[in-house]
Specification:
With 515 residues, the protein is α+β, with helices and mostly antiparallel strands. It is 51% helix and 10% strand.
């Protein structure tokens, strides 16, 4: 029996259309086959007007774009216009009789889209259809590189399809080529960072690098709502400084968690062997109120293997910032540990950027500090997928106030749209290169000028000088009466005036350098 597809609607899966229109592509397939998978950020429909509009998560096409109301018609429309959504495709292929897919290929054995459908079916389900190898026609890419980022790929002679998917079956998120990402990549921020660093003397650069590491480490803890002692901040900063020196493996993940946690008395170290979620508990019942549900612990070993394989394979292919976003946000959605996931997630950004040589030698951009300043946007990016994932996860609460996932959700963590995450990370990296790096370098220059002026005027221990600087910084370059009467009562009025002039000359004349 032929599957029936929806006619015109005004609401689809609680998402209102900008006008009455007929869902097509992935939207039509989700509805017709009752597929349980996160709904794409952008859906497609056919309207009545002769212009394409985008609004509220919908792209409304003109009547001339309407596909045949068939499995082949909507699948072809999706691949042509909407790119690959591997989670939906896998759910679809599991719902559709294999003979239907094989029949599409037999009807059009040399078709560009039927061969891609054939390849994706066999790749996702890991079994072959009852079909002979394709005739020797030109190869077609599995991922349309006009729409999404991909690798150079390997040829699959059976399908005459080039497998340019940027990951493996165990972990393969995809990123769309948006105007924002194209603009970021065109800016060549790697070269801009190299130019900025080349203008800084080596001794000053070393101090800047140390300062930025400390700033990033502290910010990463603050994001988690923690105020750890200084030694833990410094220790994590040293770990960030070593990011990228070795490829990832399971032992490295476990090492990172041990360092992040520090005190392991109340945290089970190692990969989870129970459920996990991010959110709150009801006050009286302690029932979970999840904002995000982690991958099932049964799926963690496979997903971690996928992360590791992606890290190794992405070294020379994907844009470094795009690859860093995919790996880091993929990790935090999986949430493989009971605790420490957030800080390791941000460490992975440094890992990829350093391993790919994106940041200049010895410099690690304070990405966590940029994230902290954009914390609302950061949470929105995380929720851009979590809010679409959560309705697809069936769960129950455990007596311990945890969650137990009841359905198969592994594919939702392997395959997701990481486009917002890549755009956000690029924003953060751009900020660190154009603002943080020059700002911190200039601050150290100004501080050296201030310190030299003080040393030429009066003998003062380093600790006292730093204390003096702190008072001046807090009071807009003026030494408060309390400070003059107490900690610095030995200074003469003339010395106080000269010290304030030194501070103002070093910091306030060049606005924005005080940090």
């Amino acid at each position: 029996m032929e599957t029936e597809f929806s006619g015109p609607v005004s609401v689809f899966h609680d998402r209102r259309l900008p006008e009455v229109a007929t869902p097509v592509g992935y939207a039509a397939l989700i509805d017709a086959y009752n597929l349980s998978a996160p709904v794409p950020r952008m859906l497609s429909a056919i309207g009545t007007k002769h212009r394409i509009i985008e609004q509220g998560g919908w792209r409304i096409y003109t009547p001339r774009h309407a596909p045949d109301a068939t499995l082949e018609g909507h699948l072809t429309f999706a691949l042509k216009n909407e790119g690959l959504d591997l989670a939906i495709l896998k759910r679809l292929f599991l719902a559709v009789n294999e003979d239907q897919i094989a029949g599409l290929v037999r009807q059009k054995p040399t078709g560009l889209y039927t061969r891609r459908i054939w390849f994706l079916h066999e790749w996702l389900l890991e079994r072959q259809l009852n079909l002979p190898a394709a005739d020797k026609v030109s190869y077609v890419d599995a991922v349309d590189t006009e729409l999404q980022y991909a690798t150079s790929g390997q040829n699959s002679a059976r399908h005459r399809v080039r497998n340019n998917l940027p990951g493996t079956l165990e972990f393969c998120p995809l990123v769309f080529k948006t105007p924002a990402l194209s603009e970021f990549i065109a800016q060549d921020l790697k070269e801009r960072a190299r130019v900025v660093v080349s203008q800084v003397p080596k001794d000053l650069l070393a101090r800047t690098a140390a300062f930025l590491l400390l700033k990033d480490s502290k910010s990463s803890y603050v994001i988690e709502g923690e105020r750890p002692p200084q030694d833990r901040i410094q220790r994590w900063g040293r770990v960030i400084g070593e990011a990228g020196r070795a490829p990832l493996d399971e032992a490295e993940f476990l090492r990172l968690q041990r360092i992040v946690i520090g005190d392991e008395r109340f945290v089970k170290l190692g990969f989870r062997n129970e459920g996990g979620f991010v959110g709150e508990h009801e006050r009286e019942t302690q029932r979970p109120i999840p904002d995000h549900i982690s991958a099932r612990h049964e799926d963690v070993p496979s997903l971690v293997r996928g992360l590791i394989a992606f890290d190794h394979a992405a070294e020379n292919e994907l844009d470094p910032v795009v690859a860093a976003a995919v790996l880091a946000f993929g990790f935090v959605y999986i949430h493989p540990f009971e605790d420490g996931n957030g800080r390791i997630h941000r460490y992975l950004m440094h890992h990829v950027l350093s391993r790919r040589g994106f940041n200049p030698a010895g410099i690690h951009f304070p990405v966590s500090a940029a994230i902290l300043d954009k914390i609302s946007e950061y949470k929105s990016v995380l929720e851009s997928y979590s809010t679409r994932l959560l309705p697809c996860v069936e769960w129950e609460s455990t007596p311990q106030g945890n969650v137990k996932v009841l359905n198969d959700t592994g594919d939702f963590y392997r395959f997701f749209d990481a486009t917002p995450h890549a755009e956000f990370l690029y924003e953060c990296v751009q900020r660190t290169i154009e603002q943080d790096l020059p700002k911190e370098t200039q601050f150290l220059r100004s501080f050296d000028t201030f310190r030299a002026g003080i040393e030429n005027m009066i003998e003062m221990p380093e600790r006292t000088l730093n204390n003096l600087f702190g008072f001046l910084q807090q009071n807009g370059g003026q030494l408060s009466k309390r400070a003059r009467d107490n900690e610095f009562s030995e200074l003469t009025p003339d010395e106080v005036t000269r010290i304030e002039e030194l501070y103002q000359a070093a910091f306030l004349k060049d606005s924005g350098t005080a940090s």
